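Below is how a single chain appears once it has passed through the pipeline. First comes the sequence as given, then the structure the pipeline wrote out for it. We keep one example in the README because the format questions we get most often are answered faster by looking than by reading.
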Amino acid sequence: MSVESAYRPRLAYRHAVGTAFRWITAAGALLGIVLLALLLTDVARDGTRLLSWDFLNAFPSRFPEQAGFKAALWGSIWVIGFTALLSFPIGVGAALYLEEYSGRGRLTRLIQLNISNLAGVPSIVFGILGLQLFVRGTLGFGPDLGGFGRSVIAGSLTLTLLILPIVIVAAQESVRAVPSSIREASYGVGATRWQTVWHHVLPQALPGILTGMILALSRAIGETAPLIMIGALTFVAFVPEGPGDPFTAMPIQIFNWVGRPQADFRDLAATGIIVLLVVLLAMNAVAVYVRQRTQRNV
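Resulting structure:
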């Protein structure tokens, strides 16, 4: 009996298993696409008829024919803007420290483990933490050491806690992907570690860092549970004018409309979902554009 004939049944079994696994994964992907298409079709059918400039430029109302999305849209812009300003330097700085400066000791491994675990914590837990730290000021945060109240900055700090693990992990992967030969060449011409990181490592890793940052912000803009926990208002008939003002957000307004008994409010919620999806797609398009642009400039 030849060696080839002895291994033929095992090869046939492996081929059959591989083929079955391919079809199972293809069926799972197709099922997800079909369900997503059904959901989008249902939302588009109910929401497109109400989508107009008046809807985007009107404030919430008890009357569905007068209700709009302006306060929620601008509230989300304020919150996400401050979240980006807070999470980018903290997240990128932490990633650079862990990858370029810290050793590989027990403390670093413990920090890495906690960052990975925090990335999987439910968002409502961060909402409870933000309520205690930033709204009520349990540990002395806030201008008067009594918390920021139910304000834009409290929501931004809470969402910053939520996405920081994602930003740090994405930035670490981007920094780690920079070839070590670039660092060695920089050290070889007499550059310090900081000069190497600032002038060579960071520009090379910037496309991946920015992409991970925008994708993390895309998650934050769709979060509802943390903002509900910190007491973001569901009826705000004004646009925030500063970080200390009360606010509402697009997911909060959609959640509020869905809970109303009138069918017209559910149609308004579908219209709000369309606006939220457009904003998310725009943010992802910006991520793709920024990545391609920075890769050309590196």
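The radius of gyration is 24 Å.

See the next section for the split statistics.
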